[in-house]
């Protein structure tokens, strides 16, 4: 099932033919390579000839370049007799030693329009960032949104109301929480009595492979990590506590309490590596009244719940509150918001999205049908004395009701907008 990542294609098209290198970053298997395939098809439909497109996936052993010069010479030689704009796509280019030099050399020739991907934040650090300062645009790619997930499963049902009548969206959302949004997981659904049902075993094996690849290629090899067991303990601890205040000291203390020796520096280094490979995202804590970032109380969220649930053995029946909070955080990131967790006096606000000009506050709760629960969730938002939009997102069947300026909205409906 091929999902048309329309939002990303439109963003690439916005910067097409500009003297900017388009850098697509994101977690492994989030769809970066497929995006290249989709965009190449888009270019061809717009009249670009096959000979004006160069596409190299460096995970293919056919392309084994010793250094940047060899790569540069290969592209120049391949395209020397071609006229017009040449679109060059490099997939996982960071595997080529000193690849930055090849990228910068091609950038200096106006004939080339460059697109590159990488599964590690290292791609935009160091020499490449220095060489390309102000000359690239980063497009960060995430696993499928719930809206994309649904459209992948039911491509013929574009109208939301038709979907609601014909599909059990509550069950589809539970599957999304359990198995995550990596595009390949959609291939492991089968038709059972007219309904699409996920193959749990196949998806689990796929997620196991993805996690192993991230740990080995993106962390252990690049960081020279030798203690895989310790790394996995740290990952599991963080994934067990997504959406909860966390600190390096807390992780160290917990590990040592279980007779596992480690250090502050080691844990900090591993957390940094997990962020660099885009498995984890850190949300800093923000004092809404004082308008300042706080140094403690930050939280981590995971790019894909399927990977998290594979490792922790969790599912939506056990900690749905944490899961839906994670979904909202990642969706806000996908909508290109700057997201922090909020504090107002002694009250917690789940998310503060945007800046001082376009800010929005969000509370997330599984259910608020109980009056006491509803009041608890609304209280932090009621205390904020400004005119920015305030939302309470819940799985209850709500229809954009308004309580003293706070919009109560069904989470699934919000995700499908």
Describe this structure in words.
The protein is of the alpha/beta class. It has 2 domains: 6-140, P-loop containing nucleotide triphosphate hydrolases (Rossmann fold), CATH 3.40.50; 205-415, no CATH class. 43% of the residues lie in helices and 21% in strands. It has 16 helices and 15 strands. An 8-stranded mixed sheet has the order 9-8-10-11-12-13-15-14, sandwiched between helices. Strands 2-3-4-1-5 form a 5-stranded parallel sheet, sandwiched between helices. It is globular.
Attribute tags:
alpha/beta; 16 helices; eight-stranded mixed beta sheet; 2 domains; five-stranded parallel beta sheet; 417 residues; Rossmann fold
Biggest sheet layout: 8 strands, mixed
Shape from CA axes?
globular
Distance between the termini: 22 Å
Number of domains: 2
Strand order of the largest sheet: 9-8-10-11-12-13-15-14
Tell me the number of helical segments per DSSP (H or I, 4 or more residues long).
16
How much of the sequence is in beta strands? 15-25%
Stretches where pLDDT falls below 50 for ≥5 residues? Answer: none
Estimate the helix proportion, in percent.
Answer: 40-55%
If you average the pLDDT, what whole number results? Answer: 92
Radius of gyration: 23 Å
How would the blueprint of this fold be written?
Layout: H1 6-14, E1 21-25, H2 32-45, E2 53-57, H3 68-79, E3 86-91, H4 99-107, E4 112-118, H5 126-131, E5 136-140, H6 146-153, H7 160-166, H8 169-179, E6 189-192, E7 195-198, H9 200-223, H10 228-240, H11 248-257, H12 264-276, E8 280-287, E9 292-302, H13 305-312, H14 316-334, E10 339-344, E11 347-353, E12 360-365, H15 371-383, E13 390-394, E14 401-403, E15 406-410, H16 411-415
Parallel strand pairs: 1-4, 1-5, 2-3, 3-4, 8-10, 12-13, 13-15
Antiparallel strand pairs: 6-7, 8-9, 10-11, 11-12, 14-15
């Amino acid at each position: 099932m091929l999902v048309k990542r329309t939002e990303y294609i439109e963003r690439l098209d916005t910067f097409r033919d500009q003297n900017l290198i388009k850098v697509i970053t994101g977690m492994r298997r989030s769809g970066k390579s497929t995006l290249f395939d989709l965009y190449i098809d888009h270019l061809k439909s717009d009249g670009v000839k096959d000979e004006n497109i160069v596409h190299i996936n460096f995970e293919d052993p056919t392309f084994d370049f010793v250094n940047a010069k060899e790569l540069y010479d290969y592209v120049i030689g391949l395209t020397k007799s071609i006229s017009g704009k040449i679109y060059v796509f490099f997939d996982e280019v960071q595997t080529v030693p000193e690849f930055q030099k090849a990228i910068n050399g091609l950038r200096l020739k106006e004939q080339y329009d460059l697109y590159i991907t990488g599964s590690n934040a290292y791609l935009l650090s160091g020499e490449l960032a220095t060489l390309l300062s102000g000359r690239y645009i980063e497009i960060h790619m995430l696993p499928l949104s719930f809206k994309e997930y649904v459209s992948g499963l039911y491509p013929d049902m574009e109208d939301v109301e038709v979907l609601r009548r014909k599909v059990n969206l509550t069950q589809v959302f539970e599957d999304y929480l359990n198995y995550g949004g990596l595009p390949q997981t959609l291939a492991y659904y089968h038709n059972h009595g007219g309904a699409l049902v996920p193959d749990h075993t196949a998806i689990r094996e796929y997620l196991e492979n993805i996690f192993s690849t991230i740990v080995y290629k993106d962390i252990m090899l690049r960081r020279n990590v030798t203690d895989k067991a310790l790394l996995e303990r740290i990952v599991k601890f963080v994934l067990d506590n997504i959406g909860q205040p966390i600190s390096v000291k807390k992780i160290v203390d917990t590990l040592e309490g279980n007779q596992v020796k480690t250090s502050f520096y080691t844990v900090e280094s591993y957390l940094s590596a997990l962020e660099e490979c885009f498995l984890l995202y850190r949300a800093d804590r923000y004092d809404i009244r004082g308008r300042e970032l706080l140094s403690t109380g930050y939280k981590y969220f995971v790019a894909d719940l399927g990977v998290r649930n594979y490792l922790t053995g969790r599912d939506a029946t056990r900690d749905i509150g944490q899961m839906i909070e994670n979904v909202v955080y990642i969706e806000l990131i996908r909508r290109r918001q700057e997201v922090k967790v909020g504090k107002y006096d002694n009250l917690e606000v789940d998310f503060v999205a945007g800046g001082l000009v376009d800010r929005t506050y969000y509370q997330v709760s599984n259910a608020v049908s109980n009056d006491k629960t509803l009041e608890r969730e609304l209280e932090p938002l009621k205390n904020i004395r400004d005119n920015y939009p305030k939302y309470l997102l819940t799985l209850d069947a709500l229809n954009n009701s308004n309580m003293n300026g706070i919009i109560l909205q069904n989470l699934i409906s919000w995700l499908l907008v």
